[in-house]
Amino acid sequence: MAGVDEVGRGPLAGDVVAAAVMLNPQQPIEGLRDSKKLTAARREELAQLIRSRALAWSVASASVAEIDELNILQASLLAMHRAVQALQPQPAYVLVDGNRLPHWHYAAEAVVGGDDRVPEIAAASILAKVHRDNALVDLDSVYPGYGFAAHKGYPTAMHLQALKTLGVTPVHRRSFAPVKKILSAC
Description:
Layout: E1 2-7, E2 16-22, H1 40-53, E3 56-62, H2 64-70, H3 72-85, E4 94-97, E5 108-111, H4 119-142, H5 148-151, H6 157-166, H7 177-185
Parallel strand pairs: 1-4, 4-5
Antiparallel strand pairs: 1-2, 2-3
């Protein structure tokens, strides 16, 4: 069985990232829960354990261009599909955090609040969050002044001010209202 979760639906910048994890019952991992309820340091620790102990894991994304073309929901489902497809071995059953399933051939179930109730989904939540956060830290050095390392692309006052002052970058989601508003003012 695999658990799947995504992160990054709300930010104004960066890819949406999904992870899929098949845990090894012979090597349990204590402390798995919703990544948003863990400190950054604890997420990093758990991510290392997940990568070393899981039967299989993968991380996949949908790009900013795909988000703008498809919409954030469809891009999130696409990232989830890519993450599950990348698992080796392939799962017999998939539990997906939330109330929607990607269109795929896998036997699956959507689990609302699964990232805090199902260990496999919690593990996926952690891997996806660590991966996306690290990617936004990397973008911070490519696009200085936006504060990506601090706000991870979310629409904070700092980020909105940077958008107004510095303009829109290639990593901003043009279909999102605050970015679209700035582009239309130019």
